[in-house]
Write a structure and sequence with these properties.
single chain; alpha+beta; four-stranded antiparallel β-sheet; two-stranded antiparallel sheet; about 20% helix; elongated
Length: about 120
């Protein structure tokens, strides 16, 4: 009899787990990423205004690793900008540095040339 009791208890646990999982999935609401998110980094459609300067300082704690970042963005024209960033770890050793340029060819909501 003891064998059947432990088997029944295991079956009851499985049914409970299945029901709880079902109701959790049923109650879940869909989540969508922000339209500006792109592989862990936000690349917005807009560029800085001409001669605008935007300093940034932030900490990235992905995967339990703390990475400090300092960036500076500068608007060359209303459609072109340059961005420089330096990253370092807890031990203050340089992790990475980069400079990138961006140019906005169109405006948001305007179809690209040749598209219908």
């Amino acid at each position: 009899m003891k064998y059947f009791a432990s088997r029944d208890a295991a079956m009851i646990r499985r049914v409970r787990l299945l029901l709880v999982s079902f109701f959790v999935l049923l109650a879940a609401t869909p989540l969508f990423a922000h339209r500006e998110d792109y592989i862990g980094e936000t690349l917005v459609f807009l560029t800085l205004e001409r001669h605008s300067l935007e300093p940034e300082v932030f900490v990235d704690t992905a995967h339990g690793f703390r990475l400090y970042n300092a960036a500076l963005e500068y608007g060359i024209t209303d459609r072109s900008m340059v961005d420089g960033r330096v990253s370092w770890g807890r031990d203050r050793e340089l992790d990475s540095a980069r400079v990138e340029g961006r140019h906005r060819f169109g405006d948001e909501g305007t179809p690209a040339a040749g598209s219908t």
